[in-house]
Amino acid sequence: MGKWRYGVVLDAGSSGTRVHVYRWLRNAAARKKGDVNDLKSLPEIKTKEEWVKKIHPGEHRREKRQPLRHVLTLRLSPGVSSFADRPESVGSEHLAELLDHAKSIVPLEDARDTPIFLLATAGMRLLGNLERQFLLDQICSYARANSDFLLPDCGVHIQVIPGVTEGLYGWIATNYLMETFDAPEKHDHGKGHHTYGFLDMGGASAQIAFAPNATETEKHANDLTLLRLRNIDGSVQEHRVFVTSWLEFGVNEARRRYVEALQAAAGPEVQELPDPCLPAGLRTTLDGKDIAPVSTARPTLLGTGQFDECLRQTFPLLDKDAPCSDYPCLLHGIHVPAIDFDVNHFIGISEYWHTTHEIFEIGYKDKAYDFNTYQEWVKIFCSQDWASIEDGIHEYKWGKKVDQQKANEVCFKASWIINMLHDGIGVPRVGLEDTSGSLHNGTKEVLAHGKEKGYLDAFQPVNKIDSTEVSWTLGKIVLYASSQVPAEVEALPVGFGSNVPGVPPDFQYPSVELLPDTEGFHSEHWHDALLPRRIPGILLFLFIVVLACFFLCGRNRRSRVYLQINNLLRRGGPSHPNHPKKRKGISAMLPFLNRNAPSYERVMEEGAQDFELGLTDSDGSDVDGGRPSEADSIGMRPPQRASSWGSNSNPPGLKYTFDNSSSGTIGLGISGGSGIAMDRAGLVVRTESRDHLAPIALGPTTNGRRSRAGSPTRSHHQKSPSMTPLTDD
């Protein structure tokens, strides 16, 4: 192994498949290389633009890339959820190219030490439980069979993460890149606050994560998430963050809800719905697909290009009037502590960046956001007729990345972003007074460049920070890399959970190998000790078929097969009664197969003398059926037994004897203590009670053992392999 550690994360989002590659120094190398300040910092994660790969289902692009040595994260687009109806195809048709890219980056000798994660988000959350689990199982099987990456537990490494977890990872990534974890003194926002808030807008959901000010932190302590990280020197840092997620508040789901509202308002008889959020003259299907003007497809949307009306009609989608059970709430009745924008400065990614910069800033120019300039640009664009916009697309007026689909969607997305930011979350409308009616970019006059000013404005959309793309997948890698630092003595673990001291019950560990003291599973490669790295699927299939046939063949046939195998495994003559030989059949190796094996229940009540195991002789007396026994009152009768005890005496001491002879019977002898003998005729045991002591045969003895011929139930109950008793080792 080299000096680098690697990792793989698959982000199964609703609108994209993307692979990110990261790497960091192993802790020993980092400690040797770092100075005093470096040792008090988190592990340094490295990435490059060419370590990212994005594909769509059905695409079969093959791009040659030079082998690079880094850590990998995969992001899915438009989402693995599209394979819900054919999960068996997700590997060959979708994951194969992503895994190939990963394997070309991670050195072969480090692959088995490289964890792989698939963390599915909003698109997979919308699937049914059964569909979702089948898909995750297929992904896990394919990843294990087609890569050597470390995948010890599918339940931990391949899962659908809640929106709050996605938001927390994004918060970690943002503050990691801003260096607030390592140099908080450089980001003093006042009031002892130094971290940045995080906003993410995806296709299906939206997230917010921030550390409230001191007052709100104390007031809403139970609503916060405790995050614990570990520096290179082993020291710990803790943060308390509020995180929440709004499912169906992503741009695609919001658009779906918007169209449904248009249909409800117009009525079912209306087949052409006026849409102020589409450019004038643009006609589309309800799902936004472009259609020809003469098409007779029904129903359709017809753009009117009225952006102010678009803002008005998208506002109700915020659901601001929903009942709030835990005040205060922002959207949809979901509790959020009060946001102090004096110290809470937010960085937005994904659609917050794409929609504000992709068209209106001509191709990802890194400029700060101001409300009024942005809204003016949107109005100019969306008031054009569709023919003019198409001409601009062909002339690359808005850059080479803008196509008809993006131009079609941008007016609705812009209205939704503006409503979410300013009417929903409450971000101040910076720049409103300074640039009223102006078409110039007000950034220079209102806000300095984000990096130069330290992102101290209330909201700043970004795509990259210091040339590194801001992605919540980076946050997952930061957390994992931090957890790999050796802990100091009695140090608390890395991870996150409820905001309580120590390790809360819901604490989330970054990886399965970090779970505390699970005996036999301490190694990162514990799964290799249990079974081979790859088991051919055909062997597993054959095992299942054999097992199914075994249970379907009928009880009598199973018994015969069991007995034949058991006889082959058990060799040797009967052992001495004082030293029962350990049983070697299947019953010993797999005791759970012997459902009727006897078990000894020791029940003592006050006043009863102790029982001892020993050997006794039998006088061969006949059994007497069914009389009530005084022994019942001294606790000798196991609960729910079908047998009864009969005796005219209550001896001060009794001795049980279990005879585990090869004949398969149990001898139960009782002798009195202090010279007091107990009449054998008083003992009654029915074979129906074999759940505890069956099969029991009482009768004449031969050399200290019960004779099978003397059993009164012999003629009614045939011996079965499942009734063979187990030796009490």
From TrEMBL:
Gene Ontology CC: one annotated term: membrane
UniProt region (Disordered), positions on chain: 613-660, 687-729
Binding of ATP, residues: G203, A204, S205, A206, Q207
CDD domains with a match to the protein in the record: ASKHA_NBD_YND1-like
InterPro entries: GDA1_CD39_NTPase (IPR000407)
Catalytic site: E166
Biased composition annotated in UniProt, kind: Polar residues: 641-651, 720-729
Similarity comment: family membership: Belongs to the GDA1/CD39 NTPase family.
Name of the protein in question: Nucleoside diphosphatase
Organism: Penicillium canariense
